[in-house]
Amino acid sequence: MTTDHVPAAPPVSTGGAAPPGDDAKEQRRAARRSRRYQRDTKWSPYGFIAPFFVFFAAFGLFPLLYTGWSALHRVSLHNPNELEWVGFQNFTRLWQDEFFWNALGNTFTIGVISTVPQLLMALGIAHLLNYKLRGSMMFRVAMLTPYATSIAAATLVFAMLYGRDYGLINWALGLVGIDPVSWEAGSWSSQFAVSTIVIWRWTGYNALIYLAAMQAVPHDLYESASLDGASRWQQFIHVTIPSLRPTIIFTVVVSTIGATQLFGEPLLFAGSPAGGSQSQYQTLGLYMYQMGWFNFHLGRAAAIAWTMFLLLIIIGLVYWAIMRWVNRDTAGKEA
Amino acid sequence: MTTTETESTERAAGVAGKSPATESDGRGDGAAGGSSGRRRRGRRAGSAGRQMHGGWLTYTILIIFTIGSLVPLVWQLIAASHSSGRLAQTPPPFWFGDRLFDNLERAWTDANLGLALLNTTFVAGTITVSTVLFATLAGFSFAKLRFRAKNVLMLLVIGTMMVPPQLTVVPLFMGAAKLEWVDQLQVVILPMMVSAFGVFFMRQYLSQALPTELIEAARMDGAHSLRVVWHVVFPVARPAMAVLGMLTFVAAWNEFFWPIIALTQRNPTVQVALTNLGRGYVPDQGVIMAGALLGTLPLLIAFVLFGKQIVGGIMHGAIKG
């Protein structure tokens, strides 16, 4: 266990060769201690990371690869350990599957209408929380409580709030003269409703992350900006946002990953894996679940999972390209 | 993918913005050095900054968002106190009814939420202890020890944060079926025993909070690695371990996708029991809301008690990525 910058000598320096003249017994003991020290130094770092990697290999990496292998087979839920080789048939069937494309489109639209407003609102809230406030901790805790509410509990409550006949939301709309909306049945309305659950749960959390980053912005930047006569709004645009860029990128990436995996909210919105009678809010995650555990095709479910993985990789590459482009742009400006 | 995420995460961790990241560059340990620099600045900005007082508009907007955050929870409590007959009337109830304890009792027994709460406490507790322990060991190793392939392995850890749960459930289900582990709690515990985020989090914390001289001093006294971990690393890491523990417990309590595949109503976790409620297992809206309330209550109580620490933990973790 050597530390990173090691000027200090270990208790016994190297090898087993203690200086001559010492007591032979003492010498052997020193040698033994030295060997033990070296073994300890060499192997303990691996020992400390071993539990993580053992568990990851067993429950992360192996399943990841085996999912790919299963995707090339016909596997039934009734006999999950019998694999029949079919090559890429599961993937080609997905390509022709209108439900797959529907789910892909829904995942995209729900992802956009849940992520974009969520992050914009979080940014605004963080800005407000960054002022000197009475009871600021109370605001923060209150806005974080949705994060403690599980997907299941939150969705059950929202499904009731969005109820067509007796829901609180339709009642409130009725007060201002709007006819009741059949939230669950419509395509846009249901996707909007599902998105609001995501927005409700995550806005406060993201606001806190932005707030943390805002508090790390050096104060002098604001001082010099206000000396230059920048208004509060201009300071927000020209000082806060650029300083937050790494954090914004981080939250965008995390939210995107979350959005591609959206599952619990559409599942519990009406309690069915079909995601509505027309599959109008069925996401890829939900479609995979339906395919595997309701249509009993585990092989095709695995193919959907790998498609989702490829999708994430493509999105990652796109973000990476955008980031490089943006960075080059600003680097040029600064130079 | 891996490289992309790595880059962005480290960016988020390391660089506050255009302002120069203090001592990070020379050491080639960007994330760690940058974050410590940022922390100092953060503290200074915290005291000197936040210069302006919020006006009435600020308060109004914040209060609106606070109400928006709390209304669904309050309404859940109200709905849980009414019969399903009352809930099927307009206008919806705005004040508490008298059925709360009946509904809670039915949720507790009919929806099996009593067992579910017990199971979830055990599952989330086990996951939290093992995640924090293994993350601290690995984080210490990555932050302070020298070994071959360290950087490659760290990249691998960061890359694993991106593996979505959908990519593992099919083989996990096959394994559970083969071992006949369906409905047994170890099936939802084992896959969650470690967390890549946890390793990253502890590495970031320890690389700046744990002085290298402290380890060296312990080594000079002849302490072997486990003693060093016990007497030096754990005491220093304790605040971060507490934060990671809280975050892990919340996440484990709310874990959804794999449990609803691997467990059934016979031996559920809270989320499994709530899912079955949502699928019409007990077709009574009041009971469903009472169930949702029961499943959320432990975490809400924790939030009331430790809200400040949890908020601090999330903000602290955010600075580091």
Automatic annotation (TrEMBL), chain A:
Annotated keywords: Cell membrane, Membrane, Transmembrane, Transmembrane helix, Transport
Predominant location category: membrane
A GO cellular component entry from the record: plasma membrane
InterPro entries, per the entry: ABC_transporter_permease, MetI-like, MetI-like_sf
Residue intervals of the ABC transmembrane type-1 domain: 104-319
Stored Gene3D superfamilies: MetI-like (1.10.3720.10)
Family membership noted in the UniProt record: Belongs to the binding-protein-dependent transport system permease family.
The protein, known as: Cellobiose transport system permease protein
Species this protein is from: Streptomyces harbinensis
Automatic annotation (TrEMBL), chain B:
CDD domains: TM_PBP2
Keywords tagged on the record: Cell membrane, Membrane, Transmembrane, Transmembrane helix, Transport
The name this protein goes by in its record: Cellobiose transport system permease protein
Domain of life, source organism: Bacteria
Residue stretches spanning the membrane: 56-78, 113-140, 152-173, 185-202, 228-253, 286-306
Cleavable signal peptide: none
Taxonomic lineage of the native organism: Bacteria, Bacillati, Actinomycetota, Actinomycetes, Kitasatosporales
Subcellular location as annotated: Cell membrane
Residue span of region Disordered: 1-50
Protein source organism: Streptomyces harbinensis
The keyword Transmembrane helix belongs to this UniProt entry's keyword annotation: yes
